[in-house]
Design brief:
The complex is a heterodimer of chains A (263) and B (155). Chain A contains nine helices and no strands. With 263 residues, chain A is mostly helical. Chain A has one domain. Chain B folds into two domains: 34 residues; 106 residues, no CATH class. Helix content of chain B is 30%, strand content 32%. Classes of the chains: A mainly alpha (263), B alpha/beta (155). Chains A and B meet through helix 3, helix 6, helix 7 and helix 8 of A and helix 1 and helix 2 of B.
Chain lengths: 263, 155
Amino acid sequence: MFGNLIDKIQHLGVVTLGSFQRLGRAGVFLLEVIASCTDLLVKPTLLVKQMFSVGVQTLIIIVVAGLFVGMVMALQSYYALVDFGAEDSVGVMVSLSLLRELGPVVTALLFAGRAGSALTAEIGLMKATEQLSGMEMMAVNPMRRIVAPRFMAGVISMPLLATIFSAVGVLGAYVVAVQLLGLDSGAFWSQPQNKVDLYEDIYNGLIKSLVFGLIASWIAVFEGYDCIPTSEGLGQATTRTVVYSSLAILFMDFILTALMFSK
Amino acid sequence: MTSRKIEILVGLFVAAAIAAFFMLAMSVSNMSSYGGGDSYELKAKFDNIGGLKVRSPVAAGGVTIGRVTEIQYNSDSYEAVVSMSIEEQYNKFPVDTAASILTSGLLGEQFVGFDPGAEEDFLKNGDVIDLTQSALVLEQIIGQFLYSKADEEKE
């Protein structure tokens, strides 16, 4: 009876200490990656290649998602606002919510699912097939050659993707509101111009997406580098990447929104 | 895929993002109204500014000619001091111009409205507008209305 209880307490301690250890390892890992990023200035080709697989190949899902998010928001806000005769505000509502929240957050969630999981699987498989140790044998630092370009490409791509997402979303809303619902196109554009601030809204949205890009890429490359090198461990690592990144992004979004927009 | 093709696609990706940023900045945000043009500063003192905020528009005849840059409270004269930056091209307001705080529509945002006077001299950078009219506070109007109604019924 008591033995069982003590076992459980011990297990709890092991799990707690284990997760703190992992968190510490992830922090040290981040510093190492940032330190290794200096090499990319000398060899930008590595970065460009990763920008392709992380950024360009994520572009399609971002554009399609942005288009439909914008279109749905226009339809829904029109439905809610038309009762008050305020349907001209559809443009403001859609562009503000896209620039401040939906653009960075939805892009980051899609990014974690599309690019983050791929990064983890790629690096994890390299570890499982001992390509990383092979590189070390050849005196090539895998941190600089493999991890840093992928991390940096993620950090750079996220704000670009989020900007494209917001722009496409606003265009989608324009198509629905003006072409489909027959709102005035002048009111659609002029209301946001009065209400949306370049610094307050657009720059803060960019800062948000930069932070999300950093978090998502960090978790993705760390989980890959730190995974148990078996097929099962690799699967778990990929799942963890998506779950942890999504939770971290939503949590950080709350903190950043509280810092930026609460007045 | 050749590295040349990859580089071109990445270049297109970055260019698309920059284009998207410009589209957002120019047609969705208020960047066009920041306008790099010159401006001059005017001040006006109000008893009550109502819901006026920094960056609220300043309009004359319904045309936006500037923005509110700063709102302070002067605890010596018990007045709100509103600083406004007016575009340089609108520099011919007579010194007896009146500034009032108006509301666009019934529930819209508040802005400063200029009513030009008739003097020969024009307002310069740093001048203070003396003729001002405070914001209408809806609660006060309703309160006055209720009191006058009550008085009528007594008689």
